[in-house]
Amino acid sequence: MGESRSISETDYFLGLFLLPMSLSLEVSVGKATTIYAINGSAILLPCTFSSCFGFENLYFRWSYNNSDTYRILIDGVVKNEKSDPRVRTKDDDRITLPGSTKEKMNNISILLSDLEFSDTGKYTCFVRNPKEKDLNNSATIFLQVVDKLEEVDNTVTLIILAVVGGVIGLLVCILLLKKLVTFILKKTREKKKECLVSSSGNDNTENGLPGSKAEEKPPTKV
């Protein structure tokens, strides 16, 4: 009994320890791990953060790296929930910070304009929250700059949909045909039954039963 109680207490305190971690600072760059953009265009690199404990003087930065280059693109501070992000340093004039933390948006996305092929690489959004004892978190998204966006080939998808639709249509036709055959057989049985009843009546009449035409006439008097 004492051992099971010890284990349950351990699980309880472990749960209390993990609960704040599960509710702590989170950073997201969306569901897509890779985004594509055309050379010369502009692209929004998304990043949002959340914290159940709130934030104060939150530090953020965007960094870029590829196989042989690493640099900090932009960094700044968000004073509190009622303040917009304030940029401290910026490495590239093509970068703007259109995000807002007001109305619980917590948006520190950046807009990268006049894209070049050399902009291809990993972009990391990093956040550190002093209110959570400098707890930090980050999320990374890969940008691929291309000459043109390739059209998605939906041929296989269309073939699959056509096959599935054909199978469903065939099943519907089979069910309708089955109902039609059942209906015809039912009508045929009813008609045969009526014919048998009618035929039975005619046989009784011809066999001289009362009311039949074969009833004998009285002999003619001489």
Automatic annotation (TrEMBL):
The keyword Signal applies. Keywords: Disulfide bond, Glycoprotein, Immunoglobulin domain, Ion channel, Ion transport, Membrane, Signal, Transmembrane, Transmembrane helix, Transport. SMART domains: IG. Residues 213-222 have a biased composition (Basic and acidic residues). It is found in: Membrane. Residues 192-222 are annotated as: Disordered. Pfam families: V-set. The chain crosses the membrane at residues 12-29, 156-177. Residues 197-207 have a biased composition (Polar residues). SUPFAM superfamilies: Immunoglobulin. One of its GO terms (biological process) is monoatomic ion transmembrane transport. It is a single-pass type I membrane protein. Residues 20-136 form the Ig-like domain. PANTHER family: MYELIN P0 RELATED (PTHR13869), SODIUM CHANNEL SUBUNIT BETA-4 (PTHR13869:SF14). This is Sodium channel subunit beta-4 isoform X2. It comes from Mesocricetus auratus (Golden hamster).
